[in-house]
Fold each of these.
Amino acid sequence: MNFFEILDKFKRNYSSLILYCLLDRIPIFVYGDDSDKIDNFLIDLSELIHFRKEYVYYTDFISNSEYESLIFNENIDYNSQRAHIRCPCNVALKALSQFNKLESWLIGIVIPTNKEDFYSIRNQVREKVKEALYITLSSNKLSVNFERINPKTVDLPLEQNIFKKISQDTEKSIIKMKRVLNDKTKLNNLDKDLIKTLVDFEVEKTELKKNIFKREIQNFYSGSKRAFFILTRLNLLYNIKIHAKIGSKTLLETIDYEDAPLERILSFIFKEWGENFSDLIEDGKKTFIGDKIVSLWG
């Protein structure tokens, strides 16, 4: 089963929420009974956020000091590639005992046979993270659960539109390819099984989905970064008491990207570069950052 087939088995909002958490650096824990399946799924998740630099725990770094060195530039250089961490199943418990900051981590955990051990791991996670997404990927269960995330209060138009475009654009491409081959074969008396084989694009469909997904994510990231550059300069003027506010419509037109609400772009900027520019938006909401995530589990 490929990655997009797994995603398709989730409710659409859950797939969108997975993407939301990836973009906003919320840690994702993948549970299951097959370590290879979990680790492969983590790799697929990591590849979705190609604009960040992947580091693998216990391969690229081991100690806290090594980890701090890897992410040091994030605090001093806005142009440096942001990091995300992939943690395979065999070292997950080491990571949980060693690190307190797990933002932008993807962690695989094999479900212990002893329920008490499992609850101990979950409690350990809860002590370390403000919010988290749990994906269960086992032979008899496929589910998504949340830690202090209420999916009913999270606006997901960007993420939903990306998955909608993937579905629509993939289907359009497949139809075009089938049409070309059908035009070439309909005038010839070819075997039906051969024709069926020729127009079978199931393998290609996965590659198409990946390419379309990467395109849409890159468009969002590039648009957000353009907004970040503009707002950084406006913020300099604002700090020296020069009126430098900008309307949301003007900003979206300036960055030439209108596929996501400005609130979503500003939220991403805050998570990616640590800057809150909501005060610079003339007609914006000043308290939206962080408000999309509230306590669900208490």
Note: The longest helix spans residues 202-239.
Amino acid sequence: MSTKTNKPKKTGSRKQQVAVQSNALINARYEMTAFQKKILLYIISMIQPDDEDFKQYTINVKDFVTDTDYKSKMLYGKLRQETKALIGKVYEIEEADRLSQISILSEAVYIKGKGTIQVRFTPALKPYLLQLKQHFTATPLKYILSFKSVHSMRIYEMLHQFKSTGFFVEKVQKLKYRLKIEDKYQSYSAFKKYVLKQAQKELSQTDMAFSFKEIKEGRKIDRLEFTIKPLQEIPIEAKQEQLITKLVMDLRLSPLQAKRIVIMVLPADIHRTIYEIKEAHRDGKILTNIAAYSMGVFRKKFQV
């Protein structure tokens, strides 16, 4: 086992860093407190893009106190308690052909008299955190660390995947399942008040707000259509480049194919079509090459 460490500078803030994760990990099912989630993303932000293996990542308690604005004098003891809890936490990662149950941390080592904690991820998480080339999301740590509700953090991550598309549709039961709260908020009114409305309030103070439309199946609210509102405007040229990049990364189109689509199709239609194709791919409905399938869909819908 490697003894190399990835240590933040003793006086260096991590608030300007991002936590980069596979979308499969963001959409995983797990239960966690807000404090535990902040610790986890704080550690994830230490992973470097060129890391080929996990290292022993070091939390400097003083830096963590500064970055998270926690004032408790007992924070070192709380960190010790919560990292121990994280060793027992499990991700349930659902993909097209499998359901993986993976523990998060394999160890936490407390360096006495140094005010530091060294942690290591479970090796099975490598495909979801290392050398990510596609289907990943980078969330700014400075916003995550400001949240009070763990559900707000998770909704922020989920919506961040679709920030460029501007919308996201999910069944209520599936969203509650991912958040692992189907037994806690059994009534929709409680779920709306304590989860959705709280997330709306907290996200409005970040780079991304949202509204949601309730869609009924009979008398029951079956699914939610989220409208995502970036709070910082992006120039039109930059938006076009982002769309081209998204088509290349998500649907594996060539840059030329992607540029042709961006020129000929309205952005809202492109985003919605990407969403539909990704949903079909996730559900295992695409039996051919995803690039060929995608071009077929765009040709049929928009005569590209």
Note: Residues 90 and 103 are 4 Å apart (CA to CA).
Amino acid sequence: MDLDRTLRACQSLHDSVPRLIEQEANFIREHKIRLILGDIPPLCFEIAMRASVDSVAIANFTWSEIYRVYTKNYPAFLSLIEEMETFYRNATLALTLPYPCGMEIFPRQEPIPWVARTSPLTKQEGRKAFRLPQSATIVLLSFGGLGLERLPWSNLKQLGDFFFVTTGETKQETNNLRVLPEAQRKYEDLVRAVDVVVTKPGYGIVADVISHQVRTLYTERGEFAEYPHLTRALDECATAEFIPQDQLLSGNLAPYLTRLLNKKESWPAVPLDGAAVAAAKILGLIDR
């Protein structure tokens, strides 16, 4: 994390708030927009209020809560957090996803189930679609497009008991490693095709592994307020193990993968119809 640059970028954005409000509110009036759905930029709720339309937040965290962690060393975040929270309070409704972080700032909240993608393919069909070996133990390296250059590719190539796959800008194929740029568009099919996901927890990948019941090896992601909420979700709703980041970056995955694969599976029943529930609530607001 580069908090100095983050703070400067955040301050620059907030300096543009008056111009952005006027610009976006005019656009909303001109196009007769009736509702704004936000995930989860604070300013959109202020813009909606100024344009006299309803707004709905849908998220599992707020940016004010994320930045609050850094105020001890970066007190300049405090004024930005105060402005964010003022904007969040203008939302008509907040649809709160499971394991929320900081969502209590919204005056009106309604919990909804997981919003999750689900592949229509079987594991065998998923492997065929991406030309992956049917009999291998396939491990998906999933880091949201960030940090892949830090992974120890030469060490991973020596772990012959596992076949590694990931997405990236350039297609690559070696004996037990494949980089598939085209797979990003059908990521749920790729998750379906594998035996293990190795990741830093974010809402999207946590929802994916729960939806497809794929074992997960997760590492830390720095001082990020959302992290403990998502690791609790993995512990309670999935079959997961932790790997320290130094072990991941050194390529020492084999003992952690083996322990995870030998672990007794646990997949509690979890409702995954959050998208349909959210859509009904949003349409209800529009009809009102």
Note: The two ends are 43 Å apart (CA to CA).
Amino acid sequence: MLEVSNLACSRGDHRLFSGLSFTLCPGQILQIQGANGSGKTSLLRTLCGFLVPDEGSICWRGEDIQKMAEDYYAQMIYLGHLNAIKDELSALENLRISAGLAGGHLTENEALAALRRMGLKGRERLPAKVLSQGQRRRVALARLLVNDAALWILDEPLTALDVGAVALIEALIDEHLQRQGMIVFTTHQPLKVAGMEILSLS
């Protein structure tokens, strides 16, 4: 369970939000909404532990994430609006290296299966620089298939995706929630997922 209590965050001298509290339980999904500059990405990065809040606390399964450090990161995966992909590496190499950096071991066959499910069959060994923006996004999202994290934190996961890829992401989200996973995300595109709750930043 993710518990956020009385959270406040600023950018420079500007207070983005304050007094923010919510609880996310297993099997739940929460969409963060708000205008540009309202602090959506800052909130997600704070939930990841990348930013320290001005006030309040974030607890994962009853423990403050700032004290948990690596134990928390092992149970959480963050995908930002940038793909974090190396142009000179292939889709396969990018996926295997990202898994290694997250502390896991991914075999070539496991990585190939994930990329093919993401619609990248025949492109697994191509340099990322020759892939379209949508294909590069699929490479980044393939990390969700090879990671056992209970908590997904996703910043604009549907960027550059076509209709077929969006439907695939919706299916992956449904599967994760059915396994009692948890998701916090932002998006400017419609996402059809049952039971979704919404938190608006003003």
Note: The two ends are 25 Å apart (CA to CA).
